[in-house]
Write a structure and sequence with these properties.
This protein is mostly helical. The chain contains six helices and no strands. Helix 5 packs across helix 6. It is elongated, with a radius of gyration of 23 Å. It is found in: Chromosome, Centromere, Kinetochore; Nucleus.
Length: 125
Amino acid sequence: MATRERRFNGGGGGGAAPRRAGPLGSASRRARACAGAADSKRCGAVAGGMRRGAPRGTLRAVLRRHKPQLRLAASGDLLIHLNFLMFLHRLAEEARTNAFENKSKTIKPEHTVAAAKVILKRSRG
């Protein structure tokens, strides 16, 4: 009971509240476990791989709703998702460059809007 009162009422100790590990343990323990792991499925995002796949059902439903006459191959929705991710990556890089040019450490909405104009102009066919 004394520990609970001290933790929630801020009494005693004077230091920061003790940190509790999440469901997967501490970050350093996960990083050490994944450092030598050959199996990237075990490590997920820590090893640099994608944790989840593309939301194929949702993407197909949106495509069907907007373009019912369109016929796609089996992996067409994956290519559309990949194209979207590549566009988002280019947009983020351009927005970061705009923020850096304006001597800002954070990417603000005006940086993103300016980047979108440049990227959309560049991707016109």
